[in-house]
From TrEMBL:
<dbReference type="Pfam" id="PF07714">
    <property type="entry name" value="PK_Tyr_Ser-Thr"/>
</dbReference>
<dbReference type="InterPro" id="IPR045274">
    <property type="entry name" value="WAK-like"/>
</dbReference>
<feature type="domain" description="Protein kinase">
    <location>
        <begin position="42"/>
        <end position="313"/>
    </location>
</feature>
<dbReference type="InterPro" id="IPR000719">
    <property type="entry name" value="Prot_kinase_dom"/>
</dbReference>
<keyword id="KW-0723">Serine/threonine-protein kinase</keyword>
<keyword id="KW-0547">Nucleotide-binding</keyword>
<comment type="similarity">
    <text>Belongs to the protein kinase superfamily.</text>
</comment>
<feature type="binding site">
    <location>
        <position position="70"/>
    </location>
    <ligand>
        <name>ATP</name>
    </ligand>
</feature>
<keyword id="KW-0808">Transferase</keyword>
<protein>
    <recommendedName>
        <fullName>Protein kinase domain-containing protein</fullName>
    </recommendedName>
</protein>
<dbReference type="GO" id="GO:0005524">
    <property type="term" value="F:ATP binding"/>
</dbReference>
<dbReference type="GO" id="GO:0007166">
    <property type="term" value="P:cell surface receptor signaling pathway"/>
</dbReference>
<dbReference type="InterPro" id="IPR001245">
    <property type="entry name" value="Ser-Thr/Tyr_kinase_cat_dom"/>
</dbReference>
<keyword id="KW-0067">ATP-binding</keyword>
<keyword id="KW-0418">Kinase</keyword>
<dbReference type="InterPro" id="IPR008271">
    <property type="entry name" value="Ser/Thr_kinase_AS"/>
</dbReference>
<dbReference type="InterPro" id="IPR017441">
    <property type="entry name" value="Protein_kinase_ATP_BS"/>
</dbReference>
Length: 408
């Protein structure tokens, strides 16, 4: 996509990808005016951060829902803005920052996204938060949870009909919500990969220490480029060392140790290596990271396999610790009847367990309604809750009555 016009609308029209149509044709996205953006951000009063594209501000929607507003520099970055909206609008996953909409007015190019309240993985790993006591405790099971859910989101992106390649996977772009669940963010250099085609880029953009060496050499972005970057993230998770610090490159140091047959356990974070029972699981994660970092692209695993192997490691870890794996249905026995385990839940309870149907609990949607994840009041059973669209209520009610009649 090349810029060929003096205005955003000219640019979008010339390139055949009209962001406004993307917004208008998607009932989940909203087209904001410049005035609305100014009201949402309180006149751009609270800045969260900035980069080469512009600045990010905190704001609130009409319903007081907190949001992050990414404002592009006036009159610049039109191509990047269009690409980011187009790519981000394709993704709907519980571990990806939700896109609410955008403003395409000439001097107010902005993207409105879900606000994620607990900073990012980089801050937690490298003690960059405002915690006066230094690094916060970070147990292995929580690290595994974050790695698994991040891998699942990337796997989903790579598996789409037109795969989404993130291109900038690093701990700073893995945000954490109030429950420390990961949310992949920043699709500024992400790309849509057309079926059976290769994504070439004229300008190799990425972060030193995380960028696939093959990408920097060839300018070709592939799904395995994200796999390489995720391998570096796995190393940071188990070592709590930065990808690049001074002249030291974490991935190079790790691969050199592997090549020379040295024990990489000396690199593991002391907090989690002090428990000797963790050593086998840390070595399994390190082995997976080494495969992700292979220079031969075809030798690297797909993100689907990465997520699956991490889940296997977590299951073994929980069994070793005498705990049930996440998502286990071991509490439910075959002898129990459906009516014994299906509770009747009031609307007030539903609001409570879904945090008032908030975006942090939202995991997707289908043609009938939005889907949320909640924990019932027993504190153990995770449940999915569908909030029906008004147009689907009658159809779903008829289907439920037919099912009950058939069951009886």
């Amino acid at each position: 996509m090349d810029y060929q016009g003096s205005t955003v609308r000219d640019f979008l029209h010339a390139n055949g990808q009209v962001v406004l149509e993307r917004v208008d044709n998607n009932h989940n996205l909203r087209s904001f005016t410049q005035k609305e953006i100014e009201d949402i951000t309180g006149g751009y009063s609270t800045m969260l951060g900035e980069g080469g594209f512009g600045k990010v501000y905190k704001g609130k929607l009409d319903d007081l829902h907190p949001v992050a507003v990414k404002r592009y520099k006036n009159g610049t970055k039109k191509e990047e803005f269009a690409k980011e909206v187009i790519v981000h609008s394709q993704i709907n996953h519980k571990n990806v920052v939700r896109l609410f909409g955008c403003c395409t007015e000439e001097n107010a190019l902005t993207i409105v996204m879900e606000f994620v309240c607990n900073g990012n993985l980089y801050n937690i790993l490298h003690c960059s938060s405002s915690n006066a006591n230094g690094c916060m405790p970070f147990p292995l099971d929580k690290r595994l949870d974050i790695a698994i859910e991040s891998a699942e989101a990337l796997s989903c992106m790579h598996s789409m009909y037109s795969p989404v390649l993130h291109g900038d996977i690093k701990p700073a772009n893995i945000l954490l919500d109030e429950n420390f669940r990961p949310k992949i963010s920043d699709f500024g250099i992400a790309r849509l990969l057309a079926a059976d085609k290769t994504q070439h880029t004229r300008h190799v953009i990425g972060c030193i220490g995380y960028m696939d060496p093959l990408l920097s050499q060839s300018g070709i972005l592939l799904p395995k480029s994200d796999v390489y970057s995720f391998g570096v993230v796995l190393l940071e998770i188990i070592t709590r060392k930065k990808a690049v610090e001074g002249n030291n490159n974490l991935a190079k140091s790790f691969l050199e140790a592997v090549r020379k047959g040295k024990k990489v356990r000396q690199m593991f974070d002391e907090e989690i290596v002090n428990d000797k029972k963790n050593m086998k699981f840390l070595e399994d994660i390190a082995k997976l990271a080494a495969e992700c970092l292979k220079l031969e692209e075809k030798m690297r695993p797909e993100m689907l396999e990465v997520a699956d192997r991490l889940r296997t490691i977590r299951k073994a870890y929980h069994l070793r610790k005498g705990r049930h794996s996440t998502g286990s249905n071991s509490r439910l026995t075959k002898s129990e009847k459906a009516e014994d385990v299906v509770p009747v839940v009031s609307i007030d309870e539903l609001r409570k367990i879904t945090r008032n149907f908030g975006s942090c609990a939202r995991i997707g949607e289908n043609i009938y309604g939005e889907i949320f994840l909640g924990v019932l009041k027993d504190g153990h059973n995770k449940s999915t809750i569908m909030k029906l669209f008004p147009s689907a209520i009658l159809e779903v009610l008829v289907a439920c009555l037919a099912f009950l009649h058939h069951s009886s």
